[in-house]
């Protein structure tokens, strides 16, 4: 099936996939590449150095400047603005186009603004009118100006709470909540961990996370070999565990339980309370090469493992 270009549209590109519809008053430059099954609305401009994946919807009033990359199944709402110049008053402009990436499955709400060079992660959702000033993690829901994480797309996976019946059962990817001994009396409270018997591994490293602004996110990575146990000693923090197919969201808010995260599990922590102190026990010493910080790379390595 050939592409369907409205007679009042100007499509100079020969790289437009089958079953793609281009509506009136849209201009597609010669170097642009569009995949199959796309729907391009009216009054859209697509410059030469733009690559659009398959089944992408681009609503009316959108300009895709040189350097924009849209993955498969992306939705771009009406009047979304992609900015393309870090220094707009520089008469020479950027020497090379700034790469702005919207990963597969992501959605951009009407009137959202993306600063040049940002990356919107796989399946993320940007709210209407949001101003995206830095990278958006995979599966995150961001809103506001500047855009901040409001939550995560959970694919109908229920949130695990302290009263959930799965409290000490396995979560996705072999993660689980484990009990931690705690004692309280008039003198205060104490939580105790026997390093050789209470943890699922002999720890090689300990660190603590604290003083995190509530708007910020930590984690956003997986480990190839290292396992971890997270215990919230004070305050609360929301955690996401993601095995590449399913996710669980849970809140750590008591030092009488810990979250065990085995290797090859994507972890994210956000929504810190201002007084949060998060203790982390790790099975291995720090090794930068053990980290996977790109979600798509994480999915690729999982696929290689399965094959």
Major β-sheet strand ordering = 1-3-6-9-12-15-18-20-21
CATH superfamily of the largest domain: Hexapeptide repeat proteins
- The count of strands amounts to 33
- The overall pLDDT average reads 89
CATH hierarchy, class of the largest domain:
Mainly Beta
Strand content of the residues, in percent? 35-45%
Class from secondary-structure proportions:
mainly beta
CATH overall fold name of the largest domain: UDP N-Acetylglucosamine Acyltransferase, domain 1
What is the count of structural domains? 2
Oligomer: single chain
- The number of helical runs is 1
Question: What is the approximate shape?
Answer: elongated
Tell me the major beta sheet.
Answer: 9 strands, mixed
CA(first)-CA(last) distance: 34 Å
CATH architecture of the largest domain: 3 Solenoid
pLDDT below 50 for ≥5 consecutive residues: which ranges? none
Cα-atom Rg, whole angstroms?
23 Å
Identify the notable features of this structure and list them briefly.
307 residues; mainly beta; UDP N-Acetylglucosamine Acyltransferase, domain 1; Jelly Rolls; 2 domains; nine-stranded mixed sheet; five-stranded parallel sheet; 33 strands; 4% helix; 36% strand; elongated; transferase; Trimer_LpxA-like_sf; transferase activity
Descriptive notes:
The protein is mostly beta strands. It folds into two domains: 1-153, Hexapeptide repeat proteins (UDP N-Acetylglucosamine Acyltransferase, domain 1), CATH 2.160.10; 172-306, Jelly Rolls (Sandwich), CATH 2.60.120.10. 4% of the residues lie in helices and 36% in strands. The chain contains one helix and 33 strands. It has one helix at 295-306; strands spanning 4-5, 10-11, 21-22, 27-28, 33-34, 39-40, 45-46, 51-52, 57-58, 63-64, 68-70, 75-76, 81-82, 100-102, 107-108, 113-114, 119-120, 125-126, 131-132, 140-143, 148-152, 176-179, 181-185, 188-192, 205-210, 218-223, 228-234, 237-242, 247-252, 257-261, 266-270, 277-282, 291-292. The strands form seven sheets. It has a nine-stranded mixed sheet, with no helix packed on it. Strands 5-8-11-14-17 form a five-stranded parallel sheet, with no helix packed on it. Strand 28 and strand 29 (247-252) form a beta hairpin. The model has no long low-confidence stretch (mean pLDDT 89). GO terms for molecular function: transferase activity. Residues 176-301 form the Sugar 3,4-ketoisomerase QdtA cupin domain.
């Amino acid at each position: 099936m050939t592409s369907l270009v409205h007679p009042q549209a100007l499509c100079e590109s020969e790289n437009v996939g089958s079953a793609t519809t281009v509506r009136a008053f849209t201009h597609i430059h010669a170097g642009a590449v569009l995949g199959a099954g796309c729907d391009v609305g009216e009054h859209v401009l697509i410059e030469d150095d733009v690559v659009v994946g398959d089944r992408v919807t681009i609503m009316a009033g959108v300009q895709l400047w040189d350097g924009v990359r849209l993955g498969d199944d992306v939705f771009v709402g009406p009047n979304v603005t992609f900015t393309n110049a870090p220094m707009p008053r520089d008469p020479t402009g950027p020497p090379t186009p700034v790469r702005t990436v919207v990963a597969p499955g992501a959605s951009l709400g009407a009137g959202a603004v993306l600063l040049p060079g940002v990356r919107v992660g796989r399946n993320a959702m940007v709210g209407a009118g949001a101003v995206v000033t830095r990278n958006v993690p995979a599966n995150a829901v961001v809103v506001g100006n500047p855009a901040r994480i409001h939550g995560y797309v959970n694919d109908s996976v229920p949130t695990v709470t302290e009263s959930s019946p799965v409290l000490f059962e396995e979560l996705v990817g072999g993660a689980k909540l484990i009990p931690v001994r705690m004692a309280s009396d008039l003198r205060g409270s104490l939580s105790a961990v026997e390093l050789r018997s209470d943890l699922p591994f002999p720890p090689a490293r300990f660190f603590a996370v604290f003083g995190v602004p509530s708007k910020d996110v930590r984690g956003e990575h997986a480990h190839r070999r290292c396992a971890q146990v997270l215990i919230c000693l004070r305050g609360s923090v929301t955690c996401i565990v993601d095995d590449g197919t399913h996710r669980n969201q849970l809140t750590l808010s008591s030092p009488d339980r810990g979250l065990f995260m085995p290797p090859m599990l994507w972890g994210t922590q956000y929504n810190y309370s201002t007084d949060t102190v998060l203790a982390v026990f790790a099975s291995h010493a720090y090794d930068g090469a053990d980290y996977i910080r790109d979600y798509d790379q994480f999915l690729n390595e999982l696929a290689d493992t399965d094959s």
